[in-house]
Amino acid sequence: MKLYSVSDGPPSLACRQLLKALDIKYELVNVDYGKSEHMTKEYEKLNPQKEIPTLVDNDLIMGESNAILQYLADQYDTSGKLYPKEPKLRAIVNHRLCFNLALYYRNISEYTVAPIFFDYQRTPLALKKTKIALDIFNTYLQRENSEYAAGNNLTIADFPLITATMCLEAIDFKLDAWPYVAKWYENFKQKHPDLWEIAAGGMQEISYFEKHPPDLSGMDHPIHPVRKNV
């Protein structure tokens, strides 16, 4: 098994957390985002979307971190706790995965990560969208009164939500106004230090780049505006 990963990418880090939780032996292939290794023809053969991460498990080759998390848990979690099969429990996990992909991580990354790496600004609108995402997640945690993102057991839903929230800590954004999110976040760190260590490594890189923006002026990105260094 191979995981093509970027060292500070929240989707990649979430997949690595699950692989660690499942104690799966695999080869970690670091894709150098700054050198545009994900844009090469060779990588495109693995992932036509040219996105990271990509999992290779024998004859299965797939991108999309949510799908990777779902597959790994279905295939390798003998306990059945990380991705429960009971329909209602699984529905909540699936919901949190969709919520993270469609709104939570999208809004947070737009405010935190995008301005670090590309020619974007931290706007009042982006901040508002981040606060909306936190408001909603805080409400879910409060309403369910749950220890984890999708109930009282650790599931695959926690990993992408943790790595998304980590981006906020990386820029020293405080969670005081969202006490249920803050409690969930700190609880994960304390109860799963080996899994948190993976996210912390990415956070350190993002924190460094926050203070020392990387030079990506040589990148020809098809979507994001590249900051041109003068």
Give the helix/strand layout.
Blueprint: E1 2-5, H1 10-21, E2 27-30, H2 41-46, E3 54-57, E4 60-62, H3 65-76, H4 87-111, H5 114-117, H6 124-144, H7 158-170, H8 179-191, H9 193-211
Parallel strand pairs: 1-2
Antiparallel strand pairs: 1-3, 3-4
Write a concise keyword list for the protein shown above.
single chain; 230 residues; alpha+beta; Glutaredoxin; Glutathione S-transferase Yfyf (Class Pi), Chain A, domain 2; 2 domains; four-stranded mixed beta sheet; 9 helices; 4 strands; globular
Explain this structure to me?
There is one protein chain. With 230 residues, the chain is an alpha+beta fold. It is built from 9 helices and 4 strands; from the N terminus they run E-H-E-H-E-E-H-H-H-H-H-H-H. The protein has 2 domains: 2-76, 3-Layer(aba) Sandwich (Glutaredoxin); 87-211, Glutathione S-transferase Yfyf (Class Pi), Chain A, domain 2 (Up-down Bundle), CATH 1.20.1050. The chain has helices at residues 10-21, 41-46, 65-76, 87-111, 114-117, 124-144, 158-170, 179-191, 193-211, and strands spanning 2-5, 27-30, 54-57, 60-62. The mean pLDDT is 93.
